[in-house]
Design goal:
The complex is a heterodimer of chains A (168) and B (251). Chain A is α+β, with helices and mostly antiparallel strands. Helices cover 50% and strands 24% of the residues of chain A. The longest helix of chain A is centred in the N-terminal third of the chain and has 27 residues. Chain B is built from ten helices and seven strands. The longest helix of chain B has 18 residues. The chains are: A alpha+beta (168), B alpha/beta (251).
Chain lengths: 168, 251
């Protein structure tokens, strides 16, 4: 059958200073990735990057990025990602790195993994909660994890809020 | 889920930086890390081998590894940069307090001696300069038979572009002589932003000339075999941590 296959790379953007994460947008990430690939693999890499590559989704609160890569060269482009040391946006340079969590063939499989991963993160956060009210909120969020769209967004807001609380 | 290890985290005197480094490693999924004390003896004056600070002083509570329920395990490791054969004294008393021993030879003769004779666990391949010697099959095969591993560290490649070329060149020449077995990849990270996740490191292994399976082994099972080799040499009998490891691994 004729079907264009691609690989979706689920990455987490790890920053030392969480508040600066909020400044990022998907174009800044795309530029950073293209620059890194051009630096590592030269003109060939830059050419591969211009065709099938795009940033599908970025969550500024949790730092989750979905990248779409063409199937035939995703390993080459993936091998350039560890060399990203910072992302430039609006004149500021934010030191960070990309940690790849999962590679999937479709967005749906990546979404399923992301929900399980977020549930794990909430579990890790439960012992660190400072008061009973936050614990209740976290437990609610864990119980409401599912694949429907509305709940997914609620989960991510919860995750973003919890992580900001935790950093204070 | 297999066990991922990063056996080279540079020791810095800054406690907070070290703490954030260990937390970052736990967040990424490494279940064991080793703090590396680099010892570089110069001919001029006598220097002492640094003693490792106990883990409980460095960090209060060990963070839990992502995806597992155990806290991260932190070991101590000593790397000796050798430019002369008198730098390494076999069976010195100070080596007992370290869990792992590593050597970084800078000449061909020292490399040969380290592979065949000396009692260490890891041989580091220098990544910051062009290798002055080529790897020959004989010492490399001898080292593999004895259970030694070769280590390539990747954080110099992340920091600087010229270093990147040296790292990849040295790594590829190593892979040609050792056929991709008995190699470990580790970061020589000094800051929390220089460490990379295990799947990213596996991919870097592909750049260095390893095959898919070999690259994954380089981060997981070969590291585990290094730890077992260190235990089996009975170098550190007094350290309580090793008894714990012994029981775990043997079950």
């Amino acid at each position: 059958m004729v079907r264009v296959k691609s690989r979706y790379l689920l990455c987490e953007l790890v920053v030392s200073d969480r508040s600066r994460l909020l400044l990022l947008d998907d174009r800044a990430i795309a530029l950073a990735v293209k620059a890194a690939v051009a630096r590592t693999h030269g003109d060939y890499g830059a050419a591969l990057c211009s065709v099938g590559f795009s940033v599908k989704y970025l969550n500024a609160h949790t730092g989750i990025v979905f990248l779409r890569l063409p199937k035939r060269c995703y390993r080459l482009l993936w091998s350039a990602l560890p060399f990203i040391t910072s992302v430039e946006t609006r004149g500021q340079r934010i030191p960070c790195f990309l940690n790849c969590l999962h590679v999937g063939g479709t967005i749906r499989t990546c979404q399923k993994f992301l929900i399980r991963y977020n549930a794990q993160q909430l579990h890790r956060m439960l012992p660190k909660c400072k008061n009973e009210e936050e614990k209740q909120q976290v437990r609610q969020a864990i119980l409401s994890c599912s694949l429907t769209r509305g709940n997914n967004e609620a989960l991510e807001d919860e995750l973003g809020g919890e992580e900001e609380d935790e950093e204070e | 889920m297999s066990v991922f290890m990063d056996l080279n985290l540079s020791y810095t005197a800054d406690r907070d930086a070290l703490q954030s480094l260990i937390e970052s490693a736990a967040h990424l999924g490494f279940s064991t890390v080793a703090i590396n004390y680099v010892f570089e003896p110069t001919a001029k004056k006598k220097q002492e081998i640094p003693t490792p600070t106990p883990i409980s002083e460095l960090i209060d509570q060990l963070p839990i590894v992502q995806g597992r329920s155990r806290p991260i395990r932190v070991l101590n490791r000593l790397t000796i940069v050798m430019s002369d054969s008198s730098h390494f004294r076999p069976n010195a008393a100070e080596y007992r307090s370290f869990d792992l021993l590593a050597l970084q030879p800078t000449t061909e003769k020292l490399f040969h001696a380290a592979c065949m004779l000396y009692d260490v666990d890891i041989i580091c391949i220098s990544v910051t300069e062009k290798l002055p010697f080529f790897f020959k099959r004989a010492p490399v095969n001898g080292a593999v038979d004895r259970g030694l591993v070769f280590e390539v560290s990747y954080s110099a490649a992340i920091r600087d572009s010229t270093m990147r070329r040296y790292t990849i060149a040295n790594a590829i020449s190593l892979m040609e002589s050792c056929k991709g077995k008995s190699v470990i990849l580790s970061s020589a990270a000094e800051k929390a932003l220089e460490i990379r996740g295990p799947y990213d490191v596996t991919n870097l292994g592909l750049l260095f000339g390893l095959s898919d399976g070999d690259a994954k082994e380089a981060v997981s099972s070969t590291c585990r075999s290094v730890l077992l080799h260190a235990v089996s040499v009975l170098r550190d009998q007094e350290d309580g941590q090793w008894d714990h490891l012994h029981h775990e691994e043997l079950q």
